[in-house]
């Protein structure tokens, strides 16, 4: 019996990322509630001032459904004053999170001033520059914690590639390379194991990225797959000399049509898929001989 075919647990990967966003939203909303309670009281927690009008009396929990999922809010209880939040209406159980929008705007490179203006329109009060900065810091802390997590299990197969995204850089938007690694663990499931920004897909950037993965514990790599870029293949051979290298099938599919006549491209694409669908090398070599005559004409 042939070895099990590697499967892609897309639902598990999406669930992990969604939980990361949900937890970040929950932490952010609770931090904003604490800040709002301090503003109403006129003093920080345990601070005694002459202008203080109320005191804290603990918290109570309530659920809130956001676009990122169900979150648990720790609503401050005040003695001597009713806590009426402007961030979340008292009996509202489903809303579009303004804080989520603020985080997304910040990550997209929108200026702090612009976020302040938009938040005033959305919730009736402007978020201060400090609040926007705190939201940004919390979001990046959660992302960095996930991105830098230790890799404690072996990943026999690793897919690496680079994509280009626009980001704010020195007051202007420029394309930057983001190097991504997806590992197939010993149970046969894929997960994102690394993502890092680089100035370009140079040999030095790939070498640093792969060394970073190795430093976080990436082990047991038997094969790495990627495009045919010399910078990438050279870095792989240097950092993981014991691992085999395979050209990415998807990239190969994209490159082959440029080498055949247009009238034959659909036939060649179908032939390639038939060959790659074979479970072992022997049937794959024999497949072209059993193809319809017009495929190899």
From TrEMBL:
One of its GO terms (biological process) is DNA transposition. It comes from Adlercreutzia caecimuris B7. Belongs to the transposase mutator family. One of its GO terms (molecular function) is DNA binding. Transmembrane segments: none annotated. Keywords: DNA recombination, DNA-binding, Transposable element, Transposition. NCBIfam families: transpos_IS256. This is Mutator family transposase. Pfam families: Transposase_mut. It comes from the Bacteria. Required for the transposition of the insertion element. PANTHER family: TRANSPOSASE FOR INSERTION SEQUENCE ELEMENT IS1081. InterPro entries: Transposase_mutator (IPR001207). Coiled coil: none annotated.
